[in-house]
Amino acid sequence: EARLSLSQADIAILLNPTNLSAEQSKHPWRMWLPLLARYTGARLEELCQLTVIDIEEIQGIACIRIANTSPGQQLKNESSRRHIPMHPDLLALGFLEYAERQRSHTNKRIFPELMPVRGKLGHAVSKWFTRYKNRLDIKDSRKTFHSFRHTFIDEMRDAEVPDSLIKRLVGHEDSSVTFKVYGSRIPIRALNAA
Which among 192, 158, 163, 194 has a CA at the least distance from the CA of 179? Predict the structure, then answer.
């Protein structure tokens, strides 16, 4: 069955500060991964494998780098390699400070407590998220962690963001001749505005 996007009511419940705060007390990733998914549209595994060097500043804009430059990192495809500007809400909630604390503890990964299961760091996250959403009475099995990605793309389209920018942000290939033949450099400021 196809995964569904999340409704605004679903998002309000899932990202409710009280709910997330209770979850964060057990594991910080329980707060940050849903928020990162909501505001970046990135794939679960891309977020789980982030390292401290993947948090960068480009042209004065805080960004998350999706890459396979550190041990254990993998990309779904070459189009997955990208920079995603951080949404102001992530900055206001303190994600940069959290990442810096990980750096100061000499952790290489942003979420070092995640251990791979069958080669995937997101296994425990996916299992937890299913229990979490069910506890909050979001029972539809087609609404999964990946639904954040669907929602992000839907909302970008609803906001009339050009497809080329959406594809760049979420790591989809842009097969148009314009971008394949003539280059695909999109300024980070344009991505940030989107």
Answer: 163
